[in-house]
Amino acid sequence: xxxxxxxxxxxxxxDQAATDARSAKEGGADLVEFRIDELFSGDxxxxxxxxxxxxxxxxxxxxxxxxxxxxxxxxxxxxxAYDGDDDARVSLYExxxxxxxxxxxxxxxxxxxxxARSANLKQKVNLAxxxxxxxxxxxxxxxxxxxxxxxxxxxxxxxxLAMQSEPACAVAKVAIKARSLRDNLELFEMLRAxxxxxxxxxxxxxxxxxxxxxxxxxxxxxxxxxxxxAATAPGQPTAAELxxxxxxxxxxxxxxxYGIIGWPVTQSKSPLLHNAAFGEMGHDGVYLPLPIPxxxxxxxxxxxxxxxATLLELVHDPHLDFAGASVTIPHKENLVRLAREQGWxxxxxxxxxxxxxxxxxxxxxxxxxxxxxxxNTDVAGIVDPLKKEIxxxxxxxxxxxxxxxxxxxxxxxxxxxxxxxxxxxxxxxxAEVVAEELRAAGAGSVKAMPMNTLADYAGRVMVHCTPVGMxxxxxxxxxxxxxxxxxxRGNFGxxxxxxxxxxNPVHTPLLARSGExxxxxxxxVRMFVRQAAVQSHAWTGRWPDEARFDRLVRExxxxx
Length: 560
Hints:
Elements: E1 4-10, H1 14-26, E2 31-35, H2 53-63, E3 69-72, H3 86-97, E4 107-111, H4 112-115, H5 119-128, E5 141-148, H6 156-164, E6 169-177, H7 182-192, E7 198-203, H8 208-212, E8 221-223, H9 239-245, E9 256-262, H10 270-281, E10 285-291, H11 300-316, E11 322-327, H12 332-342, E12 345-346, H13 348-353, E13 358-363, E14 369-375, H14 378-390, E15 397-401, H15 405-416, E16 420-425, H16 428-440, E17 446-450, E18 461-464, H17 483-488, E19 497-500, H18 509-516, E20 520-522, H19 524-540, H20 546-557
Parallel strand pairs: 1-2, 1-8, 2-3, 3-4, 4-5, 5-6, 6-7, 9-10, 9-11, 12-14, 15-16, 15-18, 16-17, 18-19, 19-20
Antiparallel strand pairs: 11-13, 13-14
């Protein structure tokens, strides 16, 4: 059966929970989970007699639910709010489970640890639920669950087998904090080896892969919140993201997996573009954030080894269908280093720049890697918009500000296109090393220049490649080029062309001040869109609609 989309609803107020359940249905969910542990404190009866108001509210919610529902009273020991008596919790479950058809929950969730604590408790739970495989169409089914918010427990396999061996267990649920992307691969293996319907999810930033790819591996359901603030576990996406951004309903066993590798990658716009392109083309693929951090306090080699170990596991997993990735800060140079070690093909641009931002994997019919190649599309992202704006770059004099990854790509691409490049950087020694490396790689004319001489630069092309002006960066209001000083010396004006590779915000302080002086400007969105389009073509063999890419990025960055 298809993997279900479940929206969890933490119940504080009956009316709000009912409204949220209706919204979940309207938003495309298949079922809802009423998390009642913040409403139910263990009191079954009111002080004046009769059922407690919280119990009556839960019963009304279940009976009026517009979708099949799970009722969960999660214990504080496993991340919930309930710290009352187990007997009271199970008595509530028994009361809910024995209600007439149409008024009982579809599933009741209880932790394996609580279920196994005593034979008496287990007996009560079994009275409240129908057993797995039992044919009678009454009573809810049992979800046995385990949660670990600290990581992978050492006895995880034993716990899974214990859940699956219980006759009453209709669905086994595992939720652990994912410590790295590799933890997702173990969760996928659990799903593939399941003997009963199963939920296997990684929590936190590293666990998104398990949530989105649940349909690929036959997960019973995945959870997605109505809104970010309503998430009931770390890393839980919203239903709108799952259904819209990641095209959840189109994911199947043969779906290819792509992603953006870097640290951090949470705010990347790449998933927005590439998933839209896959949908437009009818390409069976999904593109996700793939965070690979740098070890805190570690060396450059430590960072490389973690990148290498993680990426190679993704590439060589026999069931993931990992088909490619974008690679961003801080791993672009690591990708070239790994490609050289593994004997992967490296395009001339990536080899010349010494950094790559694209990985393309091709597989045979059995899923084994047939070929792997790495590319640098950042150069096209810079050079192509400039050529479109001014034509040939041959004979131009161009300033590149910044000697990091983007600066290397810009200097290499401009010099290869025939421009004489002045590479400005605060650390002149760093600029000299980069310039020498680029010349040795056959780039052409690249000369290192101290930053304090930029005001004397008299060429018309300037490409800014530092984080200055970036939203959330160390100097969001800064302007890295001394425009007024250059103008006073006759070196800046209507003939100047300023390209800012920063794309958030779209209209940076540099572009604003350049435009005021009459210069022609190119914003970072154009670079981002072009390099993404070249990546998409490498993976699919088809060119995406770049105008749509451009529109999607600008709309996503627009101020509310």
